[in-house]
Amino acid sequence: xxxxxxxxxxxxxxxxxxxxxxxxxxxxxxxxxxxxxxxxxxxxxxxxxxxxxxxxxxxxxxxxxxxxxxxxxxxxxxxxxxxxxxxxxxxxxxxxxxxxxxxxxxxxxxxxxxxxxxxxxxxxxxxxxxxxxxxxxxxxxxxxxxxxxxxxxxxxxxxxxxxxxxxxxxxxxxxxxxxxxxxxxxxxxxxxxxxxxxxxxxxxxxxxxxxxxxxxxxxxxxxxxxxxxxxxxxxxxxxxxxxxxxxxxxxxxxxxxxxxxxxxxxxxxxxxxxxxxxxxxxxxxxxxxxxxxxxxxxxxxxxxxxxxxxxxxxxxxxxxxxxxxxxxxxxxxxxxxxxxxxxxxxxxxxxxxxxxxxxxxxxxxxxxxxxxxxxxxxxxxxxxxxxxxxxxxxxxxxxxxxxxxxxxxxxxxxxxxxxxxxxxxxxxxxxxxxxxxxxxxxxxxxxxxxxxxxxxxxxxxxxxxxxxxxxxxxxxxxxxxxxxxxxxxxxxxxxxxxxxxxxxxxxxxxxxxxxxxxxxxxxxxxxxxxxxxxxxxxxxxxxxxxxxxxxxxxxxxxxxxxxxxxxxxxxxxxxxxxxxxxxxxxxxxxxxxxxxxxxxxxxxxxxxxxxxxxxxxxxxxxxxxxxxxxxxxxxxxxxxxxxxxxxxxxxxxxxxxxxxxxxxxxxxxxxxxxxxxxxxxxxxxxxxxxxxxxxxxxxxxxxxxxxxxxxxxxxxxxxxxxxxxxxxxxxxxxxxxxxxxxxxxxxxxxxxxxxxxxxxxxxxxxxxxxxxxxxxxxxxxxxxxxxxxxxxxxxxxxxxxxxxxxxxxxxxxxxxxxxxxxxxxxxxxxxxxxxxxxxxxxxxxxxxxxxxxxxxxxxxxxxxxxxxxxxxxxxxxxxxxxxxxxxxxxxxxxxxxxxxxxxxxxxxxxxxxxxxxxxxxxxxxxxxxxxxxxxxxxxxxx
Length: 942
Ligand SMILES: Nc1ncnc2c1ncn2[C@@H]1O[C@H](COP(=O)(O)OP(=O)(O)OP(=O)(O)O)[C@@H](O)[C@H]1O
Description:
Layout: H1 8-16, H2 19-32, H3 35-41, H4 50-58, E1 69-73, H5 86-90, H6 96-109, H7 121-127, E2 131-136, E3 144-146, E4 169-171, E5 174-176, E6 182-185, E7 198-202, E8 207-209, H8 215-231, E9 236-241, H9 248-252, H10 261-278, E10 285-295, E11 300-304, E12 311-315, E13 318-320, E14 325-327, H11 330-343, E15 346-347, E16 355-356, E17 359-367, H12 369-375, E18 381-388, H13 395-398, H14 403-430, H15 444-448, H16 450-453, E19 458-465, H17 472-482, H18 499-518, H19 526-538, H20 540-547, H21 550-622, H22 637-654, H23 657-672, H24 681-707, H25 730-756, H26 769-778, H27 780-791, H28 793-798, H29 800-811, H30 813-816, H31 818-829, H32 842-875, H33 880-883, H34 890-911, H35 924-935
Parallel strand pairs: 1-7, 2-8, 2-19, 3-4, 9-18, 9-19
Antiparallel strand pairs: 5-6, 6-7, 10-11, 10-14, 10-17, 11-12, 12-13, 15-16, 17-18
Bound molecules: adenosine-5'-triphosphate.
């Protein structure tokens, strides 16, 4: 009995030899042991006791090693049988004879079976999957390959002993197990338990090329279908992937003696071209471009390998600045490629003596010229792309350092991004709810190959692997990574590979989608709409074509939605900016409106002032001023002015001490206008005083006329203090007075002319000397002379005698002018009371008016006087020219001087940033202007 069939307690009982144990043992043996075992157990040689146990243990077989684990990846699926109907399955099984009879009868009566339906194009397209080929590179010659025995499936079979590689030998970890599968065995050194082997079988490849495969074999199976599609107008891509030194470059470019896929493709293409020419089919023109994507430091760069031009720029999936060289035969094309290979950046690493440091991409573009010309449709061109990627590297194996290490990082990153893109596509296809991740954005290579990586164009992968034990990790990683890609389906391939037309079709989709949404968000997509109109116009033909491709449209929806989102965001941003501009416009519009209103108000004010002025003019012209002077027109100016000044000085001497002080200030101020370089400075001081007085008397005379003031109140000389101007409205009054003066001058001239013809003007004050003197002062000629004294040095010289008289008058005013005393008395009598008699003494009226003005502006005069003095003094030297000008009519000149000084003061105040008191209501300037215009009018008789 085999010992392993007996449990331990029974052995003990057997050994003990007890009856009970023996009986139990026998019953157990009868029950569980085989007859052979029973016979063996009953053998006489195998007695009882310890000796028999030892014997039994010695004959026990040694334990066999555990069977190796085999993992199958991508096993081919078997088709399930169609489910049988329940009724049929419920029937009792017929006998074999009856079955035969039934079959014969059915074959005779049944119609012939319909032929299997041919696979439709859509079905075949749906079935089309990403082709993944595997090429196993031969081991280097120095390494003698040692084949590892394939693991036996029978666990009972004795497993062969592990073969240890001798010197110069290398074990292979990868071996093809069929046309589409390989077995990857974990090397012993990598096994956690050396006694347990582990093998992975990768199945489902389009083809597995063993190490002894030739380049032609590869081309025939891998590249030929792509070339056929390309010549048929379809784009295609072949990507060579694999770890460094696995033979990617060898596979793509080959060598002179052993040309790779690219030279063979070029030969194939031009062979087909020759055949087309022979068959007189429309010829195509081909263009070749070759560039590399490399990393020098941080960023990625694109370099054209066929031209000396430096860098190219990647814009979406188009490379700007890339030269496409037209090729007419394979030899030229191959030499071009050879030159490009020489330019490609390579470096020696521990893993490969000529390791590629960049991703190299070669494109062959076929232009269908004749088709475009004849039909008038846009040209379509197919592009065949071959990409030789730089192999993933392990730092430990390559021993890279410094810039090489940076290159390694770039290469590995690009490989990873490429793999992620395919992985995402696969997962998206498995589960449509999973979005297609935008991994392509993370590298230039994937951005360029976006259409292929998102399943819109056909791609083929060729995995290059090294079979050595040392390369197990690289090989395992690549196989695990890439074997799922063969499940990627091509359901929606783009027929037309023309990038421009594809973009247009995308635009048309955006247009259609936006049109739908426009109903909902009308104002938001207003700007987008305009853009879309242009797009729609330019893509009419394409949209017609799109209607015939519902499948394509379905696949484009995610992309379109993304583009739409971008456009919507753009439109929103634009809308916000426009809103802001609109608000600004409204603000400025409101500001303009308010300004307009302000201007309108000002205009109204000006108009009112004008009207007021006209009314005053009319009133003044109605009231004729008594002019008692009969022949003073013909008298000497100096005499007249002397009389006038005399009378005024007498008035001023009658005023109180404060008034005289103010008058002194005023005289000082006016004297400041006198040029310093005058020849008679000592006289001018007194002259100016007298002139001021006369000037004030003139204005004072007019004031009751124009404003109805009481004559008793106007007898104060301060009434004509220039500082009175600072008060609001005073300017208006003064200028009105001046204006009246102008009118008076005119009327006086008229009267004078009338006197000359014998007409004596009627005046109630003709017998009054004071009035006479005032009327003399009112005379333009006398004024003229007075001003001549004040402002014109030449005039002062000419009338020196009269000035001397004026100074004398100033010294003894009371003696010289007793009339002034009377005036003063009258003023004192009527001071503070209302005496509307306009025919009363004008000197008293002036004095009272001046006093009232003085009281009003006394506080503000002190500061103002100082300012004015400064300003006037500053203007003094500049007034030299003024003093030398020709004599003008007194009123005009006075007005000019007055307004000019005011204007100067105002201008300076404005310059100092202080608002002018005269411009408090903005009317002074306008009035001055008007009066200037009025003053500039030629005075009759002047
Ligand atoms: N199938 C092959 N038959 C003969 N020699 C090969 C084969 N594959 C590769 N080789 C040789 O192996 C060496 C490395 O190959 P290759 O440069 O093509 O590797 P690679 O994958 O392009 O490496 P890398 O990614 O570093 O550029 C070359 O000398 C090449 O001749």
